[in-house]
Amino acid sequence: MKDKIFLSIQILAGLMLVMFGLNKFLNFIPMPPAPETMGAFMGALFATGYFMKLVAVVEIVAGVAFLANKFAPLMAVVLMPVMINATLAHLFLDPAGIGGAAMLTLFTVLVMIRHKEAYSALLKP
Asked: What's the Cα-to-Cα distance from 12 to each of 34, 67, 105, rounded to whole Å?
């Protein structure tokens, strides 16, 4: 039963990641206006020309891995810095918009907990 709950969370996270990743390329979800500081931060990230595309690719690949249940432990580790940055950016620059980022960060942690045996060799002294 517990594994089914963790798998459901992993699938939900995968769907959200694919959707948000594709949105960065296709812009099918309109974004509400951001506070000035968040707008400046996001503008700087978009101005690099590559950063948000890289984030989108990481989200899509991680989402597909979560949905396929293949390489999910690896992709959770790759995804975690992206999710921590998104959560902290919202926490400090746009607290009203923190919901999605915080939820996906929590889901990523839960995916890591589901696959904790995959990390056992890394955590040995």
From this structure: 26, 8, 12
